Amino acid sequence: MEPEESKKLLRKLHEARDKLEQDLERLARDTDETEQELTAGLSYDDRVAGLAALAQDRELDFSLEEKVRMLLTRVNEAIREFKEDEYGICKSCGKPISPERLEFLPYVERCIDCQREQETR
């Protein structure tokens, strides 16, 4: 991989990490604000109904937050791999991942062939 291409991919990884961290902060902030909005100034019965709706929203938020955290972990692993000269190597077959695939998904773990094989299992 060319040095300029490597710098570009590392920059994309850092940008992805920053965006994911912002997304996690926003999810946490939105969840707190929603709870306060749903329960402020309501009667007991309305508050119970609001909290039930909030529970459903929170379940969705937690699911989304979990996915964002998993992706953030993968991005951080890719940055570590980059620093240790292990970046861009398929975790399944050990062959280099194509530059085009890395350009599209800089945190990807597998080459396209191994990814397809995994998805058909």
How is this structure best described in words?
With 121 residues, the chain is mainly alpha-helical. The protein has two domains: 3-87; 88-121, no CATH class. It contains four helices and no strands. It has helices at 3-39, 44-83, 99-104, 112-120. Helix 1 packs antiparallel against helix 2 (44-83). The chain is elongated. The two termini are 31 Å apart.
Please estimate the helix content: over 70%
Question: Main β-sheet: number of strands, strand sense, barrel status?
Answer: none
Low-confidence regions: none
What is the number of strand segments?
Answer: 0
Q: How many H/I helical runs?
A: 4
The number of domains: 2
Brief write-up:
The chain is mainly alpha-helical and 121 residues long. The protein has two domains: 3-87; 88-121, no CATH class.
Q: Layout of SSEs?
A:
Blueprint: H1 3-39, H2 44-83, H3 99-104, H4 112-120
Characteristic key phrases:
121 residues, 2 domains, mainly alpha
